[in-house]
Amino acid sequence: MSSSAMNRSAPTWNDWWVDQLGSSCLIDPDLAHRCRNAPFLLQARPAQRPPQHDWRTWLFMGGRGAGKTRAGAEWTRFAALFGQAGRIALVGPTLGDVREVMVDGPSGLRWIEPDHRPRPVYIAARRRLEWSNGAKAYAFSAEEPERLRGPQFHAAWCDEIGVWAKGEAVWNNLQLGLRLGHRPRCVATTTPRPVPLVQRLVNSDAVVTHARTQDNARYLAPEFVAQMQAIYAGTLLGRQELDGELIEDLAGALWQRSDIARQRVYSLPARFDDLVLAMDPPTTSHSRSDACGIIVAGRAATAGFGERCFILADATVQGAKPADWASRAVALGRDCGVSRIIAEANQGGEMVRTVLESVGCDLPIVLKHARLGKAARAAPVAALYQKGLIAHVGDLRALEDEMCRFGADGFVGSPDRVDALVWAITSLMFGRDGAPRIRQL
């Protein structure tokens, strides 16, 4: 494509609607969804259709299976084939996600192409998707923000920005590269999570649309929709993952996402003064439903903070047999070089020690018996987060989601990850039986 062609005013989505559909607009939409080659606009719901008028960023937030990927892929296809976008960025949580979801997934760019048209070709060695008209889309991982320094684009499609490991750094570099053509544009599709990047876009001039899982039910397995509604309808998790609501900091919750995000780090201290693995085992030896919370944390002296605690890993496992969760904990403890394994033993008692030793645990095992309730034990730990003394290494999303729901109205479930976290931090940052550690100045 010539530079002059790129600088001409791009057609609008309505222009394409008329050009592609013509009199076929009279087709029954309930029948159109059964036909692979029916134009997408006959099937698309209003939330899936790009905004009209002038915009730079379109944020489409929806529940699981709400049609976000299809909407992002269709807009990107339009930009490549009809919108004069010769260079497009495809950014996903990982390169594998870009390839398996955005390019080759059931709603990906290669598979939405009608049968009578040539499909774009993905060149793995170049991380590049090529259309027959010469337009190209380049794959990028949200784990590598520096790779977006230098390249420039006419358009971008960003998928699942709520789980990007280095969200704001990736987004900033991408925006600086969206500088080609008459009107560079970016589409972001995601299940909403109240991370800084999503909150930033919601509070910006981005155009935001929403969709629920239920809205796309005709394309999903009926049992899936019914089961998810039965289990999660009305819960905070259901509002986020099914209804596509952005659930921000909750009243009553002991932790706030802003406190966690502010102290997040992506590198480890040079050395740790202590490393521990803490566990919150299931309540009985035969439980297959409860999770076994497994958290690795370390304490190190840092400039400006003094002693600080770092949360290195969340290896919580759901529904495992005792031998399986014990083996997982022991292997992780050895790999990380922890000094001891700390386990809550209120329900299981010596069973926990027995199970750990049965899988060959050669690390010291410290059993803890809780004298206070979960919230009372967690409150001093939450205060350390507010003081900036606890840092998460990378994005521990499942742990953080549970932390930021714990204590809030409507919280349901067993906070297995939080319990393990509290034991780990209490051991590292407080003395025996929860007394404050004495530090020499």
Structure in words:
The chain is of the alpha/beta class. 33% of the residues lie in helices and 19% in strands. It is built from 16 helices and 15 strands. It has an eight-stranded mixed beta sheet, with helices on one face. β4 and β5 form a beta hairpin. α14 crosses α16. The longest helix has 15 residues. It is elongated. It starts with a helix and ends in a 12-residue tail after the last helix. The N terminus and C terminus are likely disordered.
Keywords:
eight-stranded mixed sheet, single chain, 16 helices, elongated, disordered N terminus, 441 residues, seven-stranded mixed sheet, alpha/beta, disordered C terminus, 19% strand, 15 strands
List the helices and strands and how they pair.
Layout: H1 3-7, H2 13-21, H3 29-32, H4 40-43, E1 57-62, H5 68-81, E2 87-92, H6 95-103, E3 121-123, E4 128-130, E5 136-141, E6 155-159, H7 167-177, E7 185-190, H8 196-202, E8 207-211, H9 222-232, H10 236-241, H11 257-262, E9 274-280, E10 291-302, E11 306-314, E12 317-318, H12 322-336, E13 340-344, H13 350-358, E14 365-368, H14 374-386, E15 390-392, H15 397-403, H16 416-429
Parallel strand pairs: 1-7, 1-8, 2-5, 2-6, 6-7, 9-13, 11-15, 13-14
Antiparallel strand pairs: 3-4, 4-5, 9-10, 10-11, 10-12
Helix pairs in contact: 14-16
Question: Considering DSSP H and I runs of 4 or more, what fraction of the residues is helical?
Answer: 25-40%
Proportion of beta-strand residues: 15-25%
- Number of H/I helices: 16
Largest sheet: 8 strands, mixed
Q: What's the total number of strands?
A: 15
* Poorly predicted regions: 1-11, 13-38, 432-441
Tertiary shape: elongated
Mean pLDDT metric: 83
Strand order of the largest sheet: 3-4-5-2-6-7-1-8
